């Protein structure tokens, strides 16, 4: 079988980068796109050498045809239940019918196997799909990358460059938090997609730091001391999130309502990797915490200069 990798969700940031790394690694890349997909992105993919298959996920026969001859299907789809559970299940069923041997689901996040139901709505959807995946006879590999590093640029409580504070929770000052850039996640996943021996789970982190270590980093990078700010217990934080969720039922229809964003922060402190698979594929480089923070600081300086 030719090494053809099929990607679903290729018009997104992670998906586009994944396709570039697959091509760079010598794979043939086929992507499935829908009629409503961004045509500029589709054209960019086509011009890069990617085979484009326009098909609806409800078109079972068309989806099976798209999967024919493929060695691995990689899903980088993003959305709520209709995408993560329903559409991915349709894609999975098509892959099984077409005889595709391997499937990589859209599990690019914190290791949700360590979390309980209700602690993160978007991860619960991935758990629901995982049940469907485990019941199939296809070989699966999930890539857990921790949190995407770009979240640090948005002044989340963990790193608030405006208030110059670093929030943590009781007993978690030295808790290691996993981060990986989208680029590094794409590079690693491209290798995993072409690795027939890849295990069920692969866990990576481009860099890791605790709130205490982050405080030391801010001094070196920002030239300022960010104050460590304890914010009660994780249990109290979870109860507060659940209260907000109950009070905002419309958020169930949104991908990132305020309470879901809080659930991501909660997850950073509730689960982390106990061992890393970064070295599985030699030759990969990983963006460091210091480089990431320098980029954030440079952007902050540029914004301040523009405002003057």
Key structural traits:
308 residues; alpha/beta; Rossmann fold; 6-stranded parallel sheet; 3-stranded mixed sheet; 15% strand
- What is the average per-residue confidence, as pLDDT, rounded to a whole number? 96
Q: Could you name the CATH topology of the largest domain?
A: Rossmann fold
Tell me, briefly, the overall form: globular
Residue windows where pLDDT falls under 50 for at least 5 positions: none
Sheet-strand content, in percent, reads 15-25%
Distance between the termini: 60 Å
Radius of gyration: 20 Å
Count of distinct structural domains: 2
Bin the helical content.
Answer: 40-55%
CATH architecture of the largest domain: 3-Layer(aba) Sandwich
Query: In DSSP terms, counting alpha (H) and pi (I) runs of 4 or more, how many helices?
Result: 10
> What would CATH call the class of the largest domain?
Alpha Beta
Number of strands: 13
């Amino acid at each position: 079988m030719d090494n053809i990798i099929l990607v679903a969700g290729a018009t997104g940031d992670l998906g586009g980068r994944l396709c570039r790394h697959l091509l760079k690694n010598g794979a043939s890349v086929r992507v499935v796109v829908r009629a409503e997909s961004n045509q500029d992105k589709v054209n960019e993919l086509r011009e890069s050498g990617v085979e484009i298959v326009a098909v609806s996920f409800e078109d079972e026969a068309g989806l099976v045809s798209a999967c024919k001859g493929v060695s691995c299907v990689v899903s980088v789809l993003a959305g709520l239940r209709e995408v993560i559970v329903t559409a991915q299940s349709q894609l999975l069923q098509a892959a099984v019918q077409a005889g595709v041997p391997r499937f990589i689901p859209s599990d690019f996040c914190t290791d949700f196997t360590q979390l309980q139901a209700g602690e993160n709505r978007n991860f619960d959807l991935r758990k629901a799909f995982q049940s469907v995946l485990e019941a199939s006879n296809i070989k699966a590999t999930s890539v857990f990358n921790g949190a995407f590093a770009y979240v640090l640029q948005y002044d989340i409580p963990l790193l608030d460059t405006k208030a110059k504070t670093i929030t943590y929770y009781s007993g978690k000052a030295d808790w290691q938090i996993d981060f990986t850039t989208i680029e590094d996640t794409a590079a690693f996943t491209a290798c995993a997609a072409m690795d027939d021996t890849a295990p069920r789970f692969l866990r990576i982190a481009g860099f890791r730091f605790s709130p205490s270590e982050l405080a030391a980093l801010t001094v070196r990078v920002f030239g300022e001391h960010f104050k460590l700010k304890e914010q009660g217990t994780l249990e109290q934080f979870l109860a507060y999130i659940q209260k907000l969720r109950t009070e905002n039922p419309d958020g169930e229809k949104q991908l990132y309502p305020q309470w879901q964003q809080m659930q991501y922060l909660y997850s950073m402190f509730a689960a982390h990797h106990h061992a890393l698979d970064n070295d599985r594929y030699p030759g990969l480089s990983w963006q460091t915490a210091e480089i990431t923070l320098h980029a954030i600081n440079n952007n902050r300086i540029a914004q301040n200069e523009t405002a003057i």
